[in-house]
Amino acid sequence: MKRKRTKKAVTALLATAVLLSGNAVSQLYLAQPVFADDMVFPVEAFRPTDDRPLDKSHLQQSMTVQSFEQLDNGVKLNLGAQEAYIRMLTSDMAKVSLLNKGDKEYTSVGIAKTDWSAPKFKVKEDDKRIVITTDSLTVDIKKSPFGIKYMDKDGNVINEDGEQGIGYENGKPYVFKKTDNNENFYGLGEKTDGLNKRGKEEGIWHQDPFPYESKYIYQSVPFFIGLKDKKAYGILFDNTYRTYYNFAKESDDYYYFYADGGKLTYYFFNGPQIKDVVDRYTDLTGKIPLPPEWSLGFHQSSWAYSQNDMEEVAAGYREKKIPADGLFFDIEYMDDYKAFTWGKKVPDPAGLGKRMEEQGFHQVNIFDPAIRALPGYSVYDEGTAKDLWVKNPDGTAFLGKLWPWNPSAPPSSVYPNFLKKETRDWWSMQYKPFFDTGIDGIWNDVNEPVSFIAKDHWTLPLDAVHEDDNGVKHAHEEVHNIYAHLEEEASYNAFKKLKPNVRPFVLTRAGYTGTQRYAATWTGDNHSTWEHLRMSIPMNANVGLAGHPFVGNDIGGFTKNKQLGEICTPELFARWLELGAFLPFSRDHYNNDGDSPSVKQNINRQEPWQFGKEVEDISRQYISMRYELMPYLQNAFKQAHETGNLIQQPLVFQFQDDPNTYNNEDQFMFGDSLMIAPVVEKGATSRSVYLPTGVKWIDYWTGEEFEGGQTITKQADLGTLPLYVKQNSIIPRREVQQYAGEKKLTNLILDTYLNGNASYSYYQDDATTEDYTRGEFNVTDFHVENKGNHVEFEQDKKVQNYASDIQSYTLKLHDAVEPKKVQAANNKYAKAGSVEELNGQERAYYFDANEHVLYVKIPVNEKQKVKIQTQDDVDGGK
């Protein structure tokens, strides 16, 4: 009997071969079929998917504004056969539409908010221009040739149409923009070619890629940020067709973007800070909801755990005291790969769910959108009876290929038509049996969607038909980029329907702009290589900049191929885990060719204890640190929920005034106060670290202080992750838990690095339900200030609508001196002899003379300022 060869194993083999072989062999791979075991695999599936170049010799002729009409939020321009709308949605955001006369303006499903109140604005006209002015943005419309220029309130040009203008080329909408040498570009979501997109060509069309470093990968977000003269703006090209971007690759004087079809619609966002752009962009496309606390913990997954594997791995984490919250089932749990079924590898799903809950684990199952066309399989029968599948042009149900892998078998899977609300509602209800057995999260894979038919480039053919709620038929080339987005909506709503008031957790591989409203993102089938470890940092940065802050990668790498050097060594895993402990979504996931890891003993297993005691201890240390930082991480997510703020931030996000951050790809901020500089080179025991200017930085491990604006060298043995803290930061922490909710948070540690003054607004809710949407949360502002001869601590309980378990704070002051006394009005604080003694008292302090750290235990109801006297008062202490 021939050995089964799975799609993921073949992709791993071929992708790694191309990466390691060089251009000559790469071209050979693209020229002929690839042989793997008992099958011939046609590489047409991996070629770029039918790109349609823009013919710049046939661009639309220049247009002239013949007349205009003022609207309640902007202007309508008469351009002859066409008309344009420029609408001011806010004082710093404009929507631009260029349409054939009589066509309606377009809004994609990626847009969350459409009911904008018009800002105050003025419109002026002269012979050459129509000018719209708000209090922060000027839109200068040139009448002939028609073009748009955006300026700030001081008259500085932010962005301007290029000489080629905007229009349609053979049905393809396009926009040209002027640029210059000092402009940089970021965003577009998940890409493998680095942080700064200047000088690059990009495409938006998600695909199961080969190799991983492909033009098209898993996510499609047509939003980018321009940074020029230290000022930022953003453009969302709201078009669901395949879109293309040329960021000054052809010329330093212009860049452009276009689409295969659809209407010309884009949104312009003025900064000037990158944070402002992302905030306004996510006002438009949606902020992330607050996730459940357990989803912020550490997770473990493998393709393909059985029930026995799951129970053994759960026991391993608990016995070894390595914190973890989530355990994930990949596709092998199903009955013959039929979605929404349990197979023989999980004989007792309800019992497993109960045991996982008792041990504090949350179970997440994978779900694929392809439904096997097998009469008698209830999901297929119901969907067929309700007429819910994607169709061929002739009206028959489209049949594609997914699991099980068999290259010679005929197509045997149908695909839900998620464009219909009826389908999405039906899909939501399919999760009920799984929720009933105790699963807590939904993991959506291969939802680009994938169909293993080479001529269609491993997706549905472009002419496949999706019918909307109004009976209008749409070709797949229009729906492809939003297919997963619609599926995520259905998955998210499953919680609303079936687990009301429980915070949803949905994880997706593919997505569009706005998908952050429904799901977290992981970056697909990466490889166990140092290159992919390095690549993950700028990739996650651009995913975050595109509005998806809840992002992570498979820690240690998913794909393995020992013959080609793809293997997760102890060193690689340790370095990846150190970085991975500080990802917004933190999960160790690995490939074992679909065989149970407890059965197939010769695979490269990837649970932390598989690599020896040193790596196990490193893993425990950094995962425990993540759990200590859970209050800090939860508050970072709260900021993302309110402002779109990134959790894993490229340095340029915070330090755009420092040009040395513009291309920094191997460091990042974890939240607003911690800078991570991971070691990403094989064999390295030190690395250069750039410290952004304008801030003082403290080495987390040594306490050494550095001025910003310099590059230093940090020694870093295998167990050391270079980590730096911004001075004047307060970082809330807690005691380590083995899982979220194991212990009540009774003492909040305020880890404080003080020079002048530091403030922090601490948010807390139950971290589980959606009661926070009804106001059930607390906000406490902390302020610590060095006043020369004493340090003052005060708190302001701004909102108190949640019954918190916090009884005390421990103010932890670094680089401190032993105080003369500590007092809050008439409440004197006793001196403790150790941290342990301190913890047993209501009001006390302890000074660690060796570490120069002061601990002050403060009751949560302390209403007066706490005064930490560091020097004698000249007036005798009065």
Automatic annotation (TrEMBL):
Family: Belongs to the glycosyl hydrolase 31 family.
Keyword Cytoplasm annotated: no
Signal peptide location: 1-26
Protein name: DUF4968 domain-containing protein
Residues covered by the Glycoside hydrolase family 31 TIM barrel domain: 289-634
A single GO molecular function term of this UniProt record: hydrolase activity, hydrolyzing O-glycosyl compounds
Positions of the Glycoside hydrolase family 31 N-terminal domain: 86-245
GO biological process, one term: carbohydrate metabolic process
Keyword Lipoprotein in record: no
Annotated Pfam families: DUF5110, Gal_mutarotas_2, Glyco_hydro_31_2nd, Glyco_hydro_31_3rd
Segments forming domain DUF5110: 747-815
Alphabetical UniProt keywords: Glycosidase, Hydrolase, Signal
Source taxon at top rank: Bacteria
The Glycosyl hydrolase family 31 C-terminal domain, residue ranges: 646-731
